[in-house]
Amino acid sequence: MPTIYMIRHGEAAAGWDADTDPGLSDRGRAQSEAVAREIEARVGRKLPLLSSPLRRCRETSEPLAASWADSAAIEPRVAEIPSPIEDLAERGPWLRRLMAGSWAEALTPDNTGHGKVDLAAWRQAVVDALLERREDTVIFSHFIAINVATGAALGDDRLISFRPDNCSVTIFETSGTALKLVEQGREAETKVN
After folding, report:
1. What angle do CA 154, 158, 160 make, to 5 degrees?
2. How much is the pTM?
3. How many CB atoms are located within 10 Å of the residue 132 CB?
4. C-alpha triplet 53, 58, 60: angle, nearest 5°
5. Beta-carbon neighbour count of residue 86 at 10 Å?
6. pLDDT higher than threshold 90 for residue 81
7. Which pLDDT value is given to residue 94?
């Protein structure tokens, strides 16, 4: 069964309510260097690399990609949860409210901006992106997307089943029809970024 190393991006230079696509902070760049060394030590060989299209994930992938003389392919399905709210000041409170509940609650019209975003389709797309992997792969993604995969593997409907730290590595195996959680990534009390 293919193994998926799903890495949360490094610390972003700005929060979700301050910038729609921030790059990494200095600390985030240091974290990305450290996780590159960690993955090299864990797997001992070059693997395919996928990244969310967002800057913080692409930048997190760069040290490992450089070490392997490769680049991460962009995979939009592992991107950040889509927000129905354009106003940055209102996005943070929407996300915090959403994160406190379940997917059943999240999929109500009030949370999806009355049809502006299809959270159910986004959630399924995250899972599908992992299920389709036919070889061991490293994926650079986001807090909630990692929770989507974890929830799918554990049959857990909570939006947040754990709090992956920046540059933590969560490991899954896929049979092509189901995900199995092999190792939950390092956890931390974290702000959304």
Report:
1. 95
2. 0.94
3. 13
4. 145
5. 10
6. yes
7. 87
